[in-house]
TrEMBL record:
Location of the region described as Disordered in the Swiss-Prot/TrEMBL record: 93-112
One Pfam family linked to the record: Fe-S_biosyn
Species of origin: Pontibacillus marinus BH030004 = DSM 16465
Domain Core: 1-99
Name of the protein in question: Core domain-containing protein
InterPro entries: ATAP_core_dom, HesB-like_dom_sf
């Protein structure tokens, strides 16, 4: 599994990166979506990993993904910045068209 980060997205990530959270985590977020197969792929900064994580190939960051969530992602993906939001896509189509800067920086939890 590989994630390419465009130059514009990389610049935005570098501006957002919180101190003490050097890695990214990809996650299939199903909170508030009903059942476990209804959700959206997300990505956020973290300093944690688990024994169940696999690494997603990337040139700039160490990126973790829970191996069981691998089925919700594509083998080749791109994270891009459209001057307002991040977008996660694959050659097959859009995985998440609207990843906010706040959710990437805070892990989707505004209390952090």
């Amino acid at each position: 599994m590989k994630l390419t980060i465009t130059d514009e997205a990389l610049h935005q990530l570098q501006l957002l990166q919180p101190e003490g959270r050097p890695n990214l985590r990809m996650e299939y977020d199903s909170d508030g979506c009903g059942c476990g197969v209804n959700g959206m792929p997300s990505i956020y900064f973290t300093n944690e990993s688990t024994e169940y994580d696999i690494k997603v190939e990337n040139e700039h960051y160490t990126i973790f993904l829970d191996e069981q969530q691998k089925i919700f992602f594509k083998p080749v993906m791109t994270l891009e910045w459209n001057k307002r939001l991040f977008r996660l896509k694959s050659p097959e189509g859009m995985l998440n068209p609207s990843l906010s800067s706040a959710s990437i920086k805070q892990g989707g939890d505004p209390r952090e």
